[in-house]
Amino acid sequence: MAILVDRSTRVIVQGITGREGSFHTAQMQAFGTSVVAGVVPGRGGAEALGVPVFDTVADAVERTGADASFIIVPPPFAGDAIMEAAAAGVRLAVCVTEGIPVLDMVRAHAFVEATPMRLIGPNCPGVMTPGQCKIGFIPNHVGRPGRVGVVARSGTLTYEVIQGLSDAGYGESTAVGIGGDPVLGSTFVEILPLFAADPRTEAVVLVGEIGGSDEEAAAAWIRTTGFDKPVVAFISGRTAPPGKRMGHAGAIISGTTGGAQGKVEALRGAGARIAATIEDVVRQVGEALGAAGAAVDR
Amino acid sequence: MKLLEYQAKRRFAAAGIDVPAGRLARTPDEAAAAASELGRVAIKAQVPVGGRGKAGGIALAGSPEEARREAARILAMDIHGYPVRSVWCETGLEIAHELYLGITLDRDRRRLALMLSAAGGMEIERVAAESPEKIAKLWPDAVAGPQAFQVRRLAFAALAQAPELEESRGTLAAALVPVAQSLFRLAVSLDAVTCEINPLALTVAGRLVAADGKLEVDENAEYRHQDLAHELAADLRGEDGRTGDDAFEAEAKRRGLTYVHLPGGDIGCMGNGAGLAMNTLDLIQQAGGRPNNFLDIGGGAGADKVKRSLEMILTDGDVKAVFINIFGGITRGDEVARGIVQARDELGVTVPLVVRMAGTNEQEGRRILGEAGIVPASSAPEAARAVVELVRAGGAG
Questions:
Q1: Which of A15, A221, B36, B299 suits a disulfide with A73, CB 3.0-4.6 Å?
Q2: A223 and A111 share a domain?
């Protein structure tokens, strides 16, 4: 099993003919993702990367039975593209676009909330279930099917963690990059319950960063639900100065909220193991899995 | 993008919110003219930073001569590094009570929050920390905006904290409805992530007047507000071209690079991806060093971008060594390596470079670096220790 995406996921690509869109669609196909259609308004009837292109997401879903969408369109059109996917009834949308105006996301989020669709992103690297399906641009070669769930705000650190877990032989059940924007479709507390319910996931790595309070919310969720799978947490931005946007629109310490220390303390208080470096993440996962294995006496 | 007070007030006025009569002055003479027209005025420095009152950037003037003198003094000031380019001269208000009305992005709720407090005039962050019960909050629908009954309920909750306003709460709540609705519409139309009236003055005559204003527009939405961006840029840049922003950051922005300057540090940093770049600074500090900057070359950067980034980092002469941390996904190691070698040779770089290279095309990248005499480190913490060691050794020698 896995979370969010697996072998059966049928994916459409909104923005399939763009430079980035076509490149990453080809990468996803090479990974084994079942890409069934593309959507580009005004290009309906054409073909791209071996799949049919439709004018609207609704047409694409109706004709192909797609249940997920990969949204890779420029920022001014992304909020609208997200709402179009939600209205067409797809189960999951992954939006990688960086630089979407935050109020566009506030509106899109309100729209999505009224539908069953789950949104991952924006400004995220996407979702990967190694050996089965990838939506987004996590590099194909880093993943390896395995036992650890990964949920992260930063893209590059997601790759680093996946690579580390793969090289150490633990592998990943599913890795989810939730994104670096202030308004996200899914935050840690919306992904953790999926890992809780997934029997293949034996431990979770949570990669947070400065800004907002999603890590604190995750800590509260772990504490109150009694989440019993080991969590290894890593927080970046300990040296970041207040008031400066550290690359990600969401990575900014404002006033008294968003600092790294508070996040580390909250997670430690919830029983998570705190890693100082990515190498340390992998080492602590090993310890946690060893301990868990011993506890259930396998 | 932070607007100046007078720009915010002009927009408040256009949205139908009452503001004091005022004139912008860029010279002492213009301030004197404003005072002869308006009478007794407050002269306020227009800078995109808080704390100007304490710094001496606000003065009262009872006559045109006094206005000229005070304006001359304030226009010669730098406030927290920002040169004062203009002053806003406005009529004083007879204030009975100071309220706070503001709109801000609430990340947790993924909505805009509308906040009202009877404790106006002080920093709202302080009120929030010390007595959160004094701030009433509402999360209006993003499209419909705040409804009248919602604003009234907000008003009654906020005014319950100020017994002296108990008596007039009905009229006050009714008066707050159009102000709150106008402010919300304004925030949405300007893509504002912060839009504050603090204080919102209740005058002795019973009017609600925006005595000060703060408006911050979302950087991601700047493309929809080019007029504002140009207006602001022109306002902040004087004849000497100084904007008051960190000179290195201003230069980086001009070059199209995502860069944050950390003055006082001596190790230059570069990473691909914001998280990795942030982590690069953390690793240096863990190893006992001081990072000089944050620089994200982004995904898919080619040799040219790497070269421009290295050039930018080295514009600060304090940089004694550079740590380049690459984990290739879309970014290709060989491209980065070529950029590093090319930049070093063309720019005549003399400070040591420490490169950590992993991910896509890492073997090829390492080969290129090795042939050019740059030894790539295998792990990021190891590279961080190496660069800190190099700077220490250099300082000792």
A1: A15
A2: no
